[in-house]
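Here's my example:
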Amino acid sequence: MSIIGNIIWIIFGGIFIFLEYIIAGVLMCLTIVGIPFGLKIIQLSVLGLAPFGQRVQYNEHAGGCLTIVLNVIWVFIGGLPIALTHLFFALLFAITIIGIPFASQHIKLAGFALIPFGKSIR
């Protein structure tokens, strides 16, 4: 069932989310300071391409205060606009019954996009 959901996801805009994240991740990796942010964006792009059947988990041993500092910086650099975009699309998809699974995937993506450090995709 997750394969069908991912195929429909890609057809209805998942490929554009994937490309957006890949381009942003590569641009962030151009600077030494932006490499940690770029790698997380690239990790988010994989989740943006095929979100069905994947989970986002919190890592208990994820770096301590460095994780908090990176998350605070990330919220102001790009996390908030990306999360708000996903919430907007979640509201659009939630209008119809067929779109509810896609809305829940956008909410999952919004949570990961807002605070990505200290989390991993399983």
Remarks:
- DSSP finds four helices and two strands in the chain.
